[in-house]
């Protein structure tokens, strides 16, 4: 998914300070594609905390009624230096990209796109026969500097490991997690130690997760009353816990609940994130924007199209999406440099 803000902030993303107990990170509403389009609830990045392990972006959306609208419509747009993770609770999304992928993702399936040196893609609700509701999360992870320029590629995984335990079901879509004596390992490729999983709990159910004590973790509650190690985490809020725990206990209240767990080793590199780009320097971001702008031309009607030869350029070309690619927003007038990370 693209960040469709017209004036995106350029952010320096760093590992944050440790926090005792559960730190609550509230979301802000971000409209995607204008005032009548869908709105997402964004918990990271934010001023309070910009990273959880290598996870650098978390958008939570829906449930949205797409039966009487076009649903999700995100035109072709570029990425560098990250992986995008598409995960649905309900509905369907059609993914197209410049390496030739055309895949529909559904609940319980993973779309994982590695941007590396540069890729472009689109996402849209199916034109025909789509489910009436769209609901899920869109997540990004930072690629470490050693892999930031890896060749772009795409993975779709429809068969992911899951375990049931006393009224709880845990499905791991990235990394590894222990549940009820089982180790659940996702087949998806990652470039830093991390984990991503969906938790579904019946009313009153509790699940103990066997976690890596080197990881920091965060729990995004989608629905229901949930506690993380005894502390309440409200819906649409991200509950963060610092490294040092080899067990996390998630418990539902009087009704069923659903949440997403993300985590990883604290990321030891400072990165800049602007629009859909992750890099290390201001110049790298400026160059990526210039490369994309060179691929996108304005038509006589004010719309956009691919410039001549765009398919051979850095971000390639997405085929099959009805409208033209997104223009890149204007860069801010300030130059930002990575800050030193706070001492833990």
UniProtKB/TrEMBL annotation:
Pfam families documented for this protein: Pirin, Pirin_C
Residue ranges the record marks as coiled coil: none
Protein's UniProt name: Pirin family protein
Family (UniProt): Belongs to the pirin family.
Origin: domain of life: Bacteria
InterPro entries in the cross-refs: Pirin (IPR012093), Pirin_C_dom (IPR008778), Pirin_N_dom (IPR003829), RmlC-like_jellyroll (IPR014710), RmlC_Cupin_sf (IPR011051)
Ranges for domain Pirin C-terminal: 198-294
CDD domains: cupin_pirin_C (cd02247), cupin_pirin_N (cd02909)
Residues of the Pirin N-terminal domain: 39-140
């Amino acid at each position: 998914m693209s960040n469709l803000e017209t004036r995106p902030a350029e952010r320096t993303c760093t590992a944050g300070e440790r926090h005792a107990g559960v730190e609550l990170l509230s979301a802000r509403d971000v409209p995607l594609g204008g005032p009548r389009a869908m709105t997402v609830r964004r918990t990271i990045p934010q001023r309070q905390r910009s990273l959880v392990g290598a996870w650098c972006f978390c958008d939570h959306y829906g449930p949205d009624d797409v039966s009487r609208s076009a649903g999700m419509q995100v035109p072709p747009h570029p990425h560098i230096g990250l992986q995008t993770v598409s995960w649905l609770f309900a509905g369907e999304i059609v993914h197209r990209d410049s390496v030739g992928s055309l895949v529909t993702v559904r609940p319980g399936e993973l779309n994982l796109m590695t941007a590396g040196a540069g890729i472009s893609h689109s996402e849209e609700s199916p034109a025909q026969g789509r489910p009436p509701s769209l609901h899920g999360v869109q997540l990004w992870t930072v690629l470490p500097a050693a892999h930031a320029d890896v060749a772009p590629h795409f993975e779709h995984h429809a068969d992911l490991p899951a375990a049931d335990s006393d009224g709880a079901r845990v499905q791991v879509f990235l990394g590894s997690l222990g549940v009820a004596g089982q180790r659940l390992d996702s087949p998806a490729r990652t470039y830093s130690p991390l984990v991503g999983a969906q938790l579904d709990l019946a009313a009153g159910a509790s699940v103990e997760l066997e976690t890596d004590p080197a990881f920091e973790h965060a729990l995004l509650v989608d629905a229901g009353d949930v506690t993380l190690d005894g502390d309440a985490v409200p819906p649409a809020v991200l509950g963060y816990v610092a490294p040092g725990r080899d067990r996390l206990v998630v418990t539902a209240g009087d009704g069923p609940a659903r949440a997403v767990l993300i985590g990883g080793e604290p990321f030891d590199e400072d990165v800049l994130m602007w629009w859909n780009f992750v890099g290390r320097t201001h110049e790298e971001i400026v160059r990526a924007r210039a490369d994309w702008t060179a691929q996108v031309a304005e038509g006589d009607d004010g719309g956009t199209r691919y410039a001549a030869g765009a398919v051979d350029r850095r971000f390639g070309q997405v085929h099959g999406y009805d409208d033209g690619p997104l223009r890149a927003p204007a860069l801010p007038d300030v130059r930002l440099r990575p800050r030193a990370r706070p001492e833990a």
